[in-house]
Amino acid sequence: MAKKEALRELQSRLAERLQAARTEARTANWLAVESAGQGFLLPLSDAGEIFPFGAFVAVPHTTPWFLGVANLRGGLHGLVDLAGFLGFRNTAAAVTPSDSLRDQARLVAFNPMLEINCALLVERLAGLRGKEQLQPEADDGQAKPAFVGGRYRDGQGRRWQELSLSALAGDEAFLRIVG
Predict the structure, then answer these.
(1) pTM of this prediction?
(2) Which residues pair with 33 in a beta bridge?
(3) Contact at 8 Å (CB) between 139 and 152?
(4) Where is the CheW-like domain (predicted)?
């Protein structure tokens, strides 16, 4: 009898934890990252594992924003400097950052379901953000690539630009790494 009660208690706790996890997943919609002084929101459903910025092998005859390839947990991944790809900075500075910058830099891999072995170099992780923490800004009417989503402002007045990694994974300019 005691075993049945213990099993019911365990099942009840698991059900509560699952419900809490579902609720948390709804409130945290984006991974906030910073690169070249810009704030970006990456949908959690598109983002994969996060790695420290470490050793990589440069690939000749590629665009400057394509840093090279790295072995990330046994898989070969292309490394892309996010700010360099978006045109916010010269990528040469990102390849040899200062020690303090390199310590904060991270590689955000694409979700394996997107079927692209790629990771984005970002200068800093800024935590998780939910829609309730951000106010949408009006669209400026300028043409944007398909991977650029809405623009938001947080409670401190900081601007954040949403980027869809699933759309980026299919973007022709992003896939064309030959320089």
Answers:
(1) 0.80
(2) 40, 125
(3) no
(4) 27-174
Q: How far apart are CA 97 and CA 83, in angstroms?
A: 13
Domain-by-domain residue ranges, the chain?
34-175
The vertex-57 CA angle with 51 and 62, nearest 5°, equals 105
CB 175 within 8 A of CB 63: no
| Contact (Cβ atoms closer than 8 angstroms) between residue 45 and residue 84 | no
> Token digits for 91?
């990528």
Tell me: the pLDDT tens digits for 137-150? Answer: 998 888 899 999 99
Tell me which CATH homologous superfamily contains domain 34-175. Answer: CheA-289, Domain 4 (2.40.50.180)
CA distances from 83 to 33, 34, 156 (A): 11, 9, 23
Q: Please, which residues bridge with residue 125 across strands?
A: 33
| Side-chain-side CA neighbours of residue 26 (13 Å) | 6
| Position 152, amino acid | Y
Q: Where does 6-138 show beta strands of DSSP type E? A: 30-35, 38-43, 47-52, 66-72, 75-81, 106-110, 118-122, 124-129, 134-136
